Amino acid sequence: MDTDLEALYRQYSADVYRFAVYLCGDRTLAEDIAAETFVRAWTSASVLELSTVKGYLFAIARNLYLKSLQQRQRHVPYDPDAIGHDIAAEIDIEGHSLQKESLQRVLRGLQQLSETDRSALLLRSLEDMPYEEISRVLGLPVTSIKVKVHRARQKLAQLR
After folding, report:
1. Which of 76, 105, 139 is where one domain is finished?
2. Does 99 reside within a domain?
3. For the chain, what is the domain count?
4. Which of 2, 78, 143, 152 could form a disulfide with 117 if both were Cys (CB 3.0 to 4.6 A apart)?
5. Sign of the dihedral defined by the CA atoms of residues 13, 127, 71, 112, in that order
6. pLDDT (mean) for 28-51
């Protein structure tokens, strides 16, 4: 069974980490959230269904993020230069200042969205998750998810 857990980690760890980075805007916290997500999944008493594993992992990551917000009395200020540089380097746009500035605007815009809107948008746009699964992850009706994604896209489009 350890092999299955290792395969699960190899398959989804980058996705969970990326979701956590965009969700919280803090690479260190995202690393902690990603690691804890897999610990929680592995120690969970419930049986994982392969068709919902990714959504299940994202739900755990989101809940861990929300818990971290509750534990911190004040929100750590978003540093677009730090995260923008790191993400820009990861997607190989270093040296393209216009693209880098655009990415930083989007990252700042993401942080201005409510957590639920940001989660819905990231799950749909970044992970290409179906609305029905996003609905299960966030615990909201499908129609609400569609509206949240649409409005979040509109807000981010205004930043261009």
Report:
1. 76
2. no
3. 2
4. 152
5. positive
6. 83
